[in-house]
Amino acid sequence: QVQLVESGGGSVQTGGSLRLSCAASPETFQYLAMGWFRQAPGKEREFVAVISSSGSTTYYTDSVKGRFTISRDNAKSTVWLQMHNLEPEDTAVYYCNAVRGWGLGAAEPKYDSWGQGTQVTVSS
Asked: Euclidean distance between the first and final Cα of the chain, in Å?
């Protein structure tokens, strides 16, 4: 299983921006679709965005389309989530994971274990 370490979270006001990073162990990173998920207090973890192994295809949950951008650099074994125009509803712990497949507004994480995540807090 690839090792994943998320970073870049913080506290911002509504309309602010953050860039999250996910550093992965490099052995198989280039072959994996990668995704971001988030879990708000009292809620289940939900899909946010996914990027194909080559980076040519991206897919987002409707609530972040036009505001978030997922990208990756296989040479650096890193995937990013650039978040703009943040809203209080975006407050959550954000996690990355490899993805088995996606569609219909969801994505299936590949690995059962998760990293520590990174906290994003958006205040109004």
From this structure: 39
According to the model, what pLDDT value does residue 116 have? 95
Share of the chain above pLDDT 90, in %: 93
Label the pairing between strands 18-24 and 4-7: antiparallel
User: DSSP label at 89?
Assistant: G
Residues 21, 41: Cα–Cα separation, whole Å? 21
Which residues, 6+ apart, have CB-to-CB distance to 87 below 8 Å?
A: 14, 122
Q: What is the pLDDT of residue 1?
A: 74
Distance (Å, whole) CA 37 – CA 47? 4
- Tell me how far the alpha carbon of residue 29 is from its chain's centroid: 15
